[in-house]
Amino acid sequence: MIRWHPFLTFSFYDIIDFITYFLSFGILLANILSFSTSLLIQAITVGFVDKCGGDAAAWRTVAIIYAIIGLVVNTISALSVKELPEEELNEGEVKNDNEKYGMVQAFKLLVKNKYYMMICGTYILQQLYGAMIGAGIYYMTWVLKNKNLFGQFAWAVNIPLIIALIFTPTLVGKWKGMYKLNLRGYVLAVIGRALVVVAGYMGSVPLMMAFTALAALGQGPWQGDMNAVIASCSEYTYLTQGKRIDGTMYSYTSLGVKIGGGIGTAVVGWMLEFSGYVGTNITQPQSALDMMQFMYLWLPLIFDVLIMFVLSRMNVEDANKKLKAEKGIAADEVTDASDIN
Fold first, then answer.
1. Cα–Cα distance, 1 to 117 (Å, whole number)
2. How far apart are CA 58 and CA 263, in angstroms?
3. Of 48, 71, 81, 179, which sits with the fewest C-beta atoms within 10 Å of its C-beta?
4. How far is 211 from 191, CA to CA, in rounded Å?
């Protein structure tokens, strides 16, 4: 066992899949910068669009500018990374043929892992949740009659996420794992979003912001330790199937992000169109206002409830411990081919 902190006692494998991805200053800073950038974009976009004319063409212009900035930054990041040769990664050791697999076999291994399917489903729900929160610009503009509130609500979302991100490692150690922390976090998130609904019907913007912050605080731990959960999920595949698919699992997990993001964006447009919303109108019909209220108040709550349910079933850490016990492997031991065979 390795003891890094009075509250943090992890096995070597836990150190690899959690500390490496999260506790190192560089990765922690990167996560904080990520949420800070999201906060900045949400806070300035409405005003930026107004500066560009405030119409549909202005939104397109701002979107193109953001896309160009994203392309430049991501290109620089990609060109700054050098892939190490396999010989260097394996320190001269020959890779076991048992660890080699093709794309089809990798996909089969993934779908056999119920925890991978849960993570993928959670990612889809998170993207749908994010799409509805993003659609809050319509709610702020037409229901609350103040589109500038969108930037203020961005603060209520991202600042608590950053705070939760900082404290997640300590809480993981204190509660002896990620499962309890993630589940309890989303219980808090559900309570927060339910109170947002109540505050919304009361017409109290300050209460809506306060409860939005509460919900975001509950969502923070999962945002912080999801990479470590994926690593545990990959170990589950190795313990059950004898194949290491760490890299493949990280890559394929983004499938949920892409699917959820695409569906979420489309659903927002479909629901607004179905409700009779017309962006060029001076006023909107009551059906459109009701739809905006449903999208911003109720759907995020529904998605949080579904995520909470999935997380309640996602105790992959305990599953791995039981599998190791059945195979006579110490709970804090790094698994290798000799353990599985």
1. 30
2. 24
3. 81
4. 9
Unique residue bearing structure tokens 């889809």 = 124
3-class DSSP state of 24: coil
Structure tokens at 267: 């659903």
Contacts of 201-208 with CB under 8 Å at 24 or more apart are 201/297, 205/144, 205/149, 208/153
The separation between the first and the last C-alpha atoms of the chain, rounded to the nearest angstrom, is 24
DSSP states of 198-218 as a string?
HHHHHT-HHHHHHHHHHHHHH
Q: Report CA dihedral (51, 55, 58, 64) to the nearest 10 degrees.
A: 150
| Residue 254 CB partners (closer than 8 Å, separation 6+) | 123
CB atoms within 10 A of CB 34: 15
Cα 172 to Cα 116, 121, 236, 253: the distances in Å are: 21, 23, 20, 22
**175 pLDDT higher than 50:** yes
In whole angstroms, give the CA distance from residue 181 to residue 220.
10
Q: Are 247 and 117 in contact (CB under 8 A)?
A: no
The amino acid sitting at 204 is S
Q: What is the pLDDT of residues 282-329, one digit of tens each?
A: 999 999 999 999 999 999 999 999 999 999 999 999 999 999 888 877
The CA–CA distances, whole Å, from 292 to 139, 141, 217, 251 equal 5, 10, 24, 34
pLDDT at 42 over 50: yes
Distance CA 256, CA 258 (A): 6
For the chain, domains (ranges, CATH) are 2-51+103-340 (1.20.1250.20)
pTM of this structure? 0.81
Q: Are 81 and 223 in contact (CB under 8 A)?
A: no
- Kindly give, in sequence order, each residue whose CB lies less than 8 Å from that of residue 266, ignoring residues fewer than 6 positions away: none
